[in-house]
Amino acid sequence: MAALVVLRGGSATAADKGVAQKAPAQACNVNWYQGWYTGLNFGGVGYTASRTDQDAQLINVATYTQRNTGYFGGGQLGYNWTTCHGLFGIELDGSAGSAVASTGLLPNSTNADVSITSRFNGLVTTRARAGIVMDSTLLYVTGGVAAAHTLTTYLNIAGDQFSFNNWSWGWIAGVGGELAVASNISLRSEVLYVGIADHTYTFISPTLGPGNFTHSDAAWIIRAGLNVKLGFDPAIPTY
Fold this sequence. Notes:
Elements: H1 2-18, E1 35-53, E2 62-82, E3 86-104, E4 115-134, E5 137-155, E6 161-180, E7 185-205, E8 209-229
Antiparallel strand pairs: 1-2, 1-8, 2-3, 3-4, 4-5, 5-6, 6-7, 7-8
């Protein structure tokens, strides 16, 4: 009986040694994109300007839609709050460039040069970002408020030249992607749409009297950028 007890005890000890021990689960609190960052961006713009002559200062009461492409570049500053695979952030960016759309209303006339020239040359936005992080890659959606600078110059049928030069409020939304390529550097690209609220402006011609013009502006922006993290946390994975 004593021998039997010893045998059973030895078998139990061997079984215990053969049981695999599970490694403790590792906590994942934040990802690479956590914290402050700043950077530069550059890209192309597809600009659309709608100009409505309400009082026939040019030729007739009509709306003229102008389109052209251009370029924009600038910088951004932002902060991200992150979890293991999630991100929410706030970003402020400003950019300048040139997108010019010009329309001649009497192209075959030798007596008058009636025209509209619209310029989109400045943009400031404040946007929220929300996204998913997979290893070193971030995919996000973004949206917020925008202020756009436009300059529109008219030449009416009486020979008066006048301009409206102003900042206007609007909205912006888009999608983007970002890739961490070093311990504090990431590359990104994004597609954005900017819509500017309609505004009405008045010009008083010495010959034709008052004229009212309604402006509506929009733009597609495709751009690439580089971000640099401000500060370094050794607990956050690097790539």
